[in-house]
Design brief:
With 106 residues, the protein is mainly alpha-helical. It has three helices and no strands. Helices cover 91% and strands 0% of the residues. Helix 2 (45-64) crosses helix 3.
């Protein structure tokens, strides 16, 4: 291998290490997620029991505690206002700008 300057060699090592760590992180996230997806799609009975239990438990809490239902509805509104609406507005602004730009150039 040709002689490289120490700073260039250090950058190359850093790039390689970051690439390996990114690949490892991807595998550590993707494999469990893929397995979970496979189990959900296959309707694995133990997972279905957990899902049914969680559903029934949340339903029982909602029937007994009106405040829980109101809090969850408020949380949904908050997430929609903070997370979803800015995306919708930014996309609509881009669409209007591109439409206006086309009208000017016509």
């Amino acid at each position: 291998m040709a002689h490289m300057r120490p700073d260039t060699q250090r950058q190359a090592w850093g790039f390689g290490v970051r690439g390996i760590l990114a690949g490892l992180a991807l595998v550590l996230v993707a494999v469990p997620f893929g397995l979970l997806l496979f189990l959900v799609e296959g309707k694995w009975p133990p997972l279905m029991e957990v899902d049914d239990g969680a559903r029934d438990g949340l339903h029982a809490v909602a029937l007994q505690h009106r405040w829980f239902v109101v809090a969850m509805a408020g949380l949904i509104c908050l997430v929609a206002a903070v997370g979803v609406m800015p995306v919708v507005f930014s996309h609509s602004r881009v669409a209007v700008r591109s439409r206006d730009a086309r009208m000017v150039h016509v």
